[in-house]
Design a protein that fits this description.
Blueprint: E1 3-7, E2 10-13, E3 18-25, E4 33-39, E5 46-51, E6 58-60, E7 68-73, E8 78-83, E9 92-99, E10 113-114, E11 118-123
Parallel strand pairs: 2-11
Antiparallel strand pairs: 1-3, 3-8, 4-5, 4-9, 5-6, 7-8, 9-10, 9-11
Length: 124
Amino acid sequence: QVQLVESGGGLVQAGGSLRLSCAASGRTFSNYHMGWFRQAPGKEREFVAAISWIGGSTYYANSVKGRFTISRDNAKKTLYLQMNSLKSEDTAVYYCAADPSIVVIADHREYDYWGQGTQVTVSS
């Protein structure tokens, strides 16, 4: 089992950058596939990015490809999301998620473990 805590959200102007972190507790962080999802008010939770348990494969939503970078440090048990060239449409609560076994990596229903979320607000 793993517990997740996100940090790094905040208010930023359009075009700016933020780096989100997700600290995990538990001994088997390296065994989990990890993902970032976001949810804006009145909208469904949507996939942002994901990374395989060993970090060799990364996946991105088309809307963030080329602007966001997901990475992980298994020794520090931490997941990151570097967000550059932020747009107002990136405004949402961002959640990290984990699961040891994923079939469809962009499907939030595949993930059993979730953080509490961190708010990202991009002003235009």
